[in-house]
Structure prediction request, 254 residues.
Amino acid sequence: MPFLRRVELDWERLSASPAAARAYPFGIPAIRELNRLELDADVTFFIGANGSGKSTLLEAIGTACGFSIVGGRDLVIAKEKDDTSLADILRLSWMPKVSGGFFFRAETFDTFADYIDELAKDPSIGRQAYAPYEGRSLHERSHGQGFLTFFRNRLGRKGLYLLDEPESALSPQNQLSLLRILWEQVSSGQAQFVIATHSPILMAYPGARILRFDEDGIAPIAYEDTDHYRLTRDFLNDRERYFRALFAEDEEET
Prediction:
């Protein structure tokens, strides 16, 4: 069963100014319409178009949990542009409360790897900094291999794991490897995952709950009804039809 059961927005804690309610991130339609979000599966996917608010809400949950939004609870690095105002009005309901876990953001993974390299230069730490990562720098692997090494070695503790677009550096085969890692952790009863993704491979995880973010709010959707599944299936079944539409010459005006 999931540890984090519910996310609520306490809108009364937001400034009464109409401008505050319209400002980022509160003006994002999916966020603006949200009062309560039930998380009733061990694996939940946030999906939607770019800018739909899925990563914004995921980051706010991570901040409310006390996670660094670069790499986890034990880090103190973050991007200057990060806005944590949404986290200030979140209320999280747990059963039971867990303190383990981390927030993983694909776009700042290199920053995280740099941080581990800097730790390794500290004489009091040395190469022990690499112990959780098979004894060597994450930069000594391909980007995708670095992602998988991170997941294989940082998911062994009981906790909530928030992953923002973890597929970004992974080949289709390695996305399947990540599905196996998720399954192993969920089967052990040690992990709950909330994942923002565009990957139709990842969101096919058996029994996962898929929540779509759009102009109307946030709502559950069946895997086969997602645009990701339908577009991928249709493209693979008849890619020439898409090419005819995409690469058609514009008709000359007469």
